[in-house]
Amino acid sequence: MKPLDAPQRALAFGANPPLSLPLRYFLSAPLFATLAAALLAWQGEAALLTRWSPLTLAVVHLMVLGCVSMTMIGALLQMLPVVAGIGVPGTGRVGAAVHLCLGAGTLLLAAGFWHENPVLFRFAMALLLAGLLLFVGACTVGMWQYHLPGAGAVVAGVRLSLASLLVTMVLGALLASVFAWPGLLQLSLQRLTDLHALWGLSGWIGLLVIGIAFQVVPMFMLTEPYPKWLTGQFSTLLFMLLAAASLSSGWNGAGALLHQASLWLLAGGYALFGGVTLYLLARRKRPRADPTTLFWRTAMASLLAALALWLWPAATPSNAAPLAIGVLLIGGVALSTISGMLYKIVPFLTWYHLQQRRDISGRKPPNINQIIPERHAQWQYGLHAAAVLLLLAACYQPMLARAGAALLCAACLALWLNLWRAARLYYSQSNYHHE
Question: What is the C-alpha separation between 357 and 361, in angstroms, rounded?
Answer without folding.
Answer: 6
